[in-house]
Amino acid sequence: MSIGRAAAAIAAVSALAACSSEATSAPPESAAARPEVFGAAGYRGIAPGMAKEAAAATGKLANAPVSTLDGCTVLSWQGGPAPDQARLAAEAEAQRKADDLNAKADAADQAAKQPAGKSAADSAKAAAKDAEAAQLSADAAMASADLAGKREERDKAFAAAGGASFGKNGVHELGAPPDAKTAEGIGVGSSLADLHKAYDGRGLKESKAGRLELPLPEKPGWQFEFTPTADGKVGGVAISDGALKCR
């Protein structure tokens, strides 16, 4: 073999070995390239129980709340729904009215239970107190129903867009944005059939509120909450500590 041909053969072998070495030593797909999982560890750096200040510092959440109902401060993900001032005002008024009327109804009920004298005048006063208590109770019930309606509106918006809801102890509920998925690939738009297939064997059950809940063993006291839609799909995914109010 001539020197030229030998040199060419050696170069070819070296190139083939280099390619083989690169293929063998190529690192696996980086964690950054894989889709982030929505789950017990949280999402986008926002973790269950994280203080509001620390969560805000990540830059992943909007600055102004979209709801403050029941003492819960709800922040959207960056790029999510902006605060609706009319809705915020309506929530605040519904909360104030319900709180006020319920307090008055409780006080009137206690007053009506006080022993009354035996005179006609005393009987008349007692009857008036009973009537007042009954009216306040009815008014309080209507105000509470209105407040419940505002709560339902807030929950629907939260399920659709996701975000973080903060109470006294930090994040108490974290809602997935529409493009997020759990480790099993369940997200907004998934079929309920796929949801049941993924989680029935792990304790998925329906709550009184109509959501489908799944305990999170790695985060005791927390659970997945899947909001179903009328057309048999998942309309929202969240992890929550189960608290209904933040005050």
UniProtKB/TrEMBL annotation:
It comes from the Bacteria. Residues 82-92, 108-124 have a biased composition (Low complexity). Residues 1-17 form the signal peptide. Keywords: Signal. Residues 93-107 have a biased composition (Basic and acidic residues). Residues 82-124 are annotated as: Disordered. This is Lipoprotein. It comes from Amycolatopsis albidoflavus. The lineage of its organism: Bacteria, Bacillati, Actinomycetota, Actinomycetes, Pseudonocardiales.
